[in-house]
Design goal:
Layout (H helix, E strand, L loop, with lengths): L10 E11 L2 E12 L14 H8 L7 E6 L2 E2 L3 H8 L16 H12 L1
Length: 114
């Protein structure tokens, strides 16, 4: 199976993003723009909100405040659906199979997702 997609117009941005777990604010006032081919590095100790931020950006958890934009449109409703179709979130507890290569794991999940 060959999986080939291009995302020349991909752009993900956040403005004033606040992430909380319970009453504890983990991330406050985060602004960034990530275009096709870009990278965003997250670092911090356990419990600092790295995984929670990724879940928020993937649309799995709502932010406490601020906004997320996908291709310059607010990432909710139809835009959020489009973002979910064109991206994937693999957390630290994944269903990846260690006996498969990275490419085979990605191809498998791409096939499952359609």
């Amino acid at each position: 199976m060959t999986l080939r997609r291009t995302y020349d117009d991909f752009k993900l941005a956040a403005e004033g993003l606040q992430i909380a777990r319970g009453n504890r604010v983990l991330v406050h006032g985060l602004d960034f723009t990530l275009a096709n081919g870009g990278a965003l590095a997250l670092s911090g100790p356990n419990g600092s909100g790295k995984s929670t931020l990724l879940r928020v950006l993937a649309g799995l958890t709502p932010p406490a405040a601020g906004a997320i934009y996908y291709n310059d449109r607010p990432a909710h409703g139809d835009t959020a659906d489009e973002l979910r179709r064109n991206s994937a979130y693999f957390g630290h507890r994944t269903a990846l199979k260690p006996m498969l290569s990275v490419a085979d794991n990605l191809a498998f999940w791409a096939h499952i997702r359609g």
